Amino acid sequence: MNLNLVIIVSVAFAIAAYLVSKVNDKAGAFMTVAGSMFALVTVFLLRNSIGSEISFLYFNFNLTVTGWYFSLVMLTAYSMTAFFNPFWMKKLIYPAGYNFLYLLSMAGTLGVFFAKDFITLFVFWETVVWSSAFIIQMGKSRQAAYVYYVISAIGSMATLFAIMFAYGTTGTFVINEAFKGLAGYPGRAIVIFITFIAAGMAKIGIFPFHVWLPSAHGSAPHTFSPVLSGGLVKMGAFVALLSVTAFPAYEIFKDMASFRGIPLPIYFMMALGAISIVAGTLMAIKQEDAKKLLAYSSVANGGYILIGLLMLDQVGFAGGMMHIVNHAVASAAAFLSIAAVAYRTGTTKMSEMGGMIHRMPVTYLVYLIAIISMAGIPPMGGFVSKWLIFQGLADKGLIFLATTAFFGSIGSFLYVFRPLSAVFLGQTFTRDLEKKEVGFFMMFPMLILTLLSLLTGVFPNIFLRVVVEIQSAFGMLPVTLAENTIVTSNGFLDAFRVFIVFGFGFAIAFVLFVIRRKSRKVELMDTFTSAEFIHTRELLHYSHSFYAPFERLYEKAPDTMKLYHKAAVKINELGNMAESAFFGIRPARTVLLVMGMVLIVIIAGGVL
Amino acid sequence: MMINPVLLIAIPLGLAFIAVVFKKLQGWILAIGVAANAFLVFFVEKGETAIGGFKLPFAISLVLDDFSFIGVILVNVLTLAAVAVAFRKTEKYVPVILAGLAGLNGMVLTGDMFNLFVFMEITAISAYILSSEGRKPEQSFNYLVIGSIGSVLYLLGLILIYGQTGTLNMSLMAEKSALIGQAAMVLPLVLIFAGIAVEAKLLPMSGWVRGVLGNSNALTGVMFASVYSSAALMVFGRVFSQVLIPGTTAGVIIIVIALLTFAAGQVSAFRSKSLRQVLLYSSIAQSGLAAALFATGFVFPAVLVIINNAAGKMIMFSTAGNLEEKYGTDDYVGLGGAFVRNMPAGVAFTIAALSLTGLPLVFGFYAKLNVLAAYLNQGTFFVPAVVLAGTIIEGAYFIRILIKLWAPGKEGEWADADQSVGEKKIFNPAGTVVVILVTLLIILSGFLPDSVGKLVAPGGGLLGDEGPSISMTMEKGGDQ
Questions:
Q1: pTM above 0.90, yes or no
Q2: Which of A375, A483, B304, B402 could crosslink B367 through cysteines, CB 3.0-4.6 Å?
Q3: HSE (side-chain half, CA atoms, 13 Å) at B137
Q4: Looking at this predicted complex, what is its ipTM?
């Protein structure tokens, strides 16, 4: 099986899924499971053919270890989420179209990661953008798809500009060569760097491009949000990675003003990442919708990834790469668990749910472990990657970035806990009393993702060994790995030992729980207040405006979306102006315009 | 067997007269006429043909080279498509369409500047009559006035040039005008520009477009947006990249006006709420882009832009016209979900929109890459920046329409087929077939861009330009 075939077969699966869905949409949805699992397994088996190259039509592919790593992350998100698809067909306006686009966008991401030249990369990139935009519109908001598309377009058109500009300068599209000759053109290099990274920033959801995430992640079909957050966002990380490796930014900008060894253009991007961490964290705390909350947390986590990757060093970079896996797994799991809850309750609004732990204990556990990883608490994967990123920041003495990173970490405790307490803990709502746990088919992917979160946390070196290869491929000093430990200049991390300690604590607590289990089980409604019994369960559940006092501190913070609205209004005004000036429906105006033009020409002709 | 290019003009013109006499057979005559032309166009003999009994360069000549070949293919095939999609609407206009077709072929083929004027007038008259289908006499009148102004200006410019070169033959004029000082050429060039700009929908002569195309139906919309404007732009290309190559001053003026047209078209489309209005402004923008490319000397990318626009607008205007007819509105907000039960029409419209925006996997991407590469290879990055900014706006207004028409539903609720405006079929079976064929062409050519490049410019270039500014497969193997 070669690279071409993986993509071609994926597209074939997409078409087959479409045709099958026309007959039976559920069967078509199972095709998405088959297609994505097929791609996952085949790409995994391509491990030994790294370095192979192949062309098809005008596309040129090559398999790098980076592409392999990214595509596995992506396919994990796609294939695990696909297990949910069969259960959501009834909700969708175009089940067949959904299944088709689901697999088409997946094939598109593979093309992005395997691309050898920028044309190939861009073609597949845009394919992913429009196919996912068409999926998002099937969800709860049309506006979301619009915003998603426009923000993506701003990014990708900038990137197209960069690609073509570099082509005009160096005469090639090959990813590894196109930017190499730019050192002689410092002015162009800056323009190209900034415009090239734009698509990546837009996709990761870095400030000021982050506005699409809450609406798109929050409103997309529940089965697509995990892919968006766990997978597609990582495509942006891939471009960000290219902008410091394929575009040798550190080399090209080495004579420029720098801050702690980081040239200013790169530092500027990292600062945007830091702003995203803060903005994402603060906004996530405010959300009332679980999916929107997770979307903002993706913004914050995107900031970590960007900062880590752009450091391009031994430790921080490894952290960034590792965080790609961790966040993909954890956020896919979290979104899936919310989807599972929504499957039973029909809502994602936190204030409309409660106590689901009693009804859906496994889903609760999945969510719990996912957020432990997201918040960066051991023994889950998120801890390892954040630890590495912190190490990198501390090593370089990047105070501002480190502060925001810590802020985001602490803030994440605040927000990830909210869905936990609002959705899963507390009183079960009356209407949800009869709800059941989801079936095994939906539980399976959630459990796999949960185990993956644990695996990355306990044995991070499995993943870091690939990262070492990636670092070596880019000529960096790779992160130092011992048997089961990660060694940095400030110390070392033995994740397994951490796990043992935590496991030990957990075991003791569990033993205590078992032997002291003599307390009487009290029904949740077995309580009273002000000498009255309460019969409305909902009143006993507090989940609205959880952090009101804290939110008040920044309620006046500017809304980035307003900037885009203003831009749209301005373009509208320009349009009104252009229409009345040039396209008026009175011929007299045309005559005036022509006379003006001729006059200008006569004067200009006389002068020139 | 190769045929004489004059047949492309003579057949429809003759049939137009016959159609006036045999009113009952008009439908057949039209069908035969446009089909014959669309078929014969592929067998026309290349080269320069003198007509009228004089020797060249005194005779009127028809020139069929790679460039005008694309022009006649576009004109004849798209006319066939327009007639096939909206056959019922052609009833009253059979002679008009046929005469217009003759004029269009003449415009594209002619090698004589005055003859060009004659054919442009024939075309324009048929266009005025067709515009009356919109039942807005004021708009047709407006069109007529602007068209007449354009004609006068064109003639004025031509007289000035004739006075300096002493010939009307294009190739001879090209040789002689190169010897004239640039300053003396600026005014006539701008006057001729204004004349061609009417049908090409360029500023400042585009005042008629909103009134006419805004009230078009599936027939007239396609005729104006695809057929007439392609022919006019091809003429624009012929005149400004071969006959009267603008010097610096005139070039800057024309390019600035063309880019202004592009920008004004895009922002106006962004503000429009009516489907046809969005489309007509987008057409204006595309015309501006093509004109800017021609005036810079980038013929090949310009031709790609024209082809892309013609194919895309054929699908979109026929859809919009039919939607207006079926639902009584073409405000796209009021057409939510019109594609839900119209899969083929919806997919065609979507592909056309993707292609016009220049998104990958369809033909428009190749066109866009060539546009960008042409300028950036030359070291100009201002124009590509404008083009890409325009593309963002273009993408925004198209995606807004697509979302509306595909996914009906209230904000905050899942898209729901029951919320759609209706289930009326947009196209009749014949129309569906035509639209699907055009869509397939757009998709197929998107996958085989370099072959399309070879088809468009078999000699490598058009009218002396370098041809494709980019080869998509150039990097194969990566060792070049």
A1: yes
A2: B304
A3: 0
A4: 0.91
